[in-house]
Amino acid sequence: MKKKLLTIGSYVLVAMLATVITLAMVGTNPPSKLDRLEALIEDRFIGEANTETLEDAAAAAMVKATGDRWSYYISASDYDAHREQEENAYVGVGITIQPQEDDSGFLVVMVTEGGPAEEAGIELNDLLIGVEGQDVRGMTTEEVAALVKGQEGTKVSMTIMRKGEHMTLTVERRRIEQAVAEGELLEDGIGLVKINNFDERCASETIAAIEKLQAEGAEKLILDVRNNPGGFADELVKVLDYLLPEGDLFRSVSYDGKEKVDTSDASYLDMPMAVLVNGSSYSAAEFFAAALQEHEAAVVVGESTVGKGYYQQTIQLGDGSAVALSTGKYFTPKGNSLIDKGVTPDVQVDVDEETAAAIYYGTIQNADDPQLQAAIKALK
């Protein structure tokens, strides 16, 4: 065959070769714009460019370009931290710090009970001024956290100021489980339960906190989901099922149109209740308040919530990175969407920035918390 083609003529050979090339291209996708751009940068860019950094930036930009404020890209280097957040656990020393306006350091506003920082001698209201010999005054909270973080079992030196004296303590980094729900018995038989998020262990810890308060004499209940970023729908449903009587609890519709309705059994918590919300109550926290409000089981106190009505599915990509992509919508028990509306409190109580910050960091006294006091008044 090859010999015969050569004897027919050069124009036939050229035509046949063109046909072969065309056929070879059929079914083969040409390189995408992003592939071509990456290749150009790698081949011709006169400076230095890191391929992983380029791909992370392109992936993040692609997700952002959907216009959905709730979808986001997670780089491979950030994925472990993302999972730690969902598990309500992290490797660290067990303190929460707050930057001081005068750049004098970072105030220790919480010390995890039984954690490595407490064991090493760090106390509430200590001022953190150094980590590993570096002066942290003037740094951001994120920069300080990066210095403190490290492998489990390793140690970090932390310099603090206490009553004008400097001291450097060595603290072991360990895996720490963060409390998801905490209870406190207030005056007049009112129990207060702070729910930090709806991630792992939320339901079990919330129910345990409520039952402990009941055993201590609580006859009324305030559930605080201010600054709660949301979490898993199944944790939300478990808590609502415990609190509410028989009926619909939560609705969701996936990207392919499939609807799911979660319902409650007849068993419920028969107590007067109030829910605290604010402008940083997101997602599951909003639907928690909405369900209690629509069932007329609780009075909602505080500020209007964010208005998030999409749910995200975290999908890992081949290189260890992932995308949290909005793949469905959430609805209240009565089928209402909270998108761009949020939950409107029954009792509106706005606070200034200083008070909001004190609530966020947990440094406010109960008597100075106007939203909490309004909830107490509503229950009385």
Description:
The model is unreliable at 1-26 (pLDDT under 50). The chain has helices at 2-8, 10-25, 33-44, 51-64, 76-86, 116-120, 141-148, 202-215, 233-243, 283-294, 353-361, 370-379, and strands spanning 72-74, 89-92, 95-99, 106-111, 127-131, 134-135, 155-162, 165-172, 174-177, 181-185, 190-195, 220-224, 247-254, 259-264, 273-277, 298-302, 310-316, 322-331, 347-348. The protein is globular, with a radius of gyration of 28 Å. With 380 residues, it is α+β, with helices and mostly antiparallel strands. Helix 1 (2-8) packs across helix 2 (10-25), helix 8 packs parallel to helix 9 and helix 9 (233-243) runs parallel beside helix 10 (283-294). The strands form four sheets. Strands 3, 4, 5, 6, 7 and 8 form a six-stranded antiparallel sheet that branches. A six-stranded mixed sheet has the order 10-11-12-15-16-19, with helices on both faces. Strands 1, 13, 14, 17 and 18 form a five-stranded antiparallel sheet that branches. It is 34% helix and 27% strand. A hairpin with a 6-residue loop joins strand 3 and strand 4. It is built from twelve helices and 19 strands. The termini are far apart.
Q: What's the oligomerization state?
A: single chain
Helical run tally:
12
Terminal-residue CA separation: 99 Å
Helical amount? 25-40%
The unreliable regions are: 1-26
Over the alpha carbons, how many angstroms does the gyration radius reach? 28 Å
Mean pLDDT: 91
| Morphology | globular
- Structural class determined from secondary elements: alpha+beta
Number of strands: 19
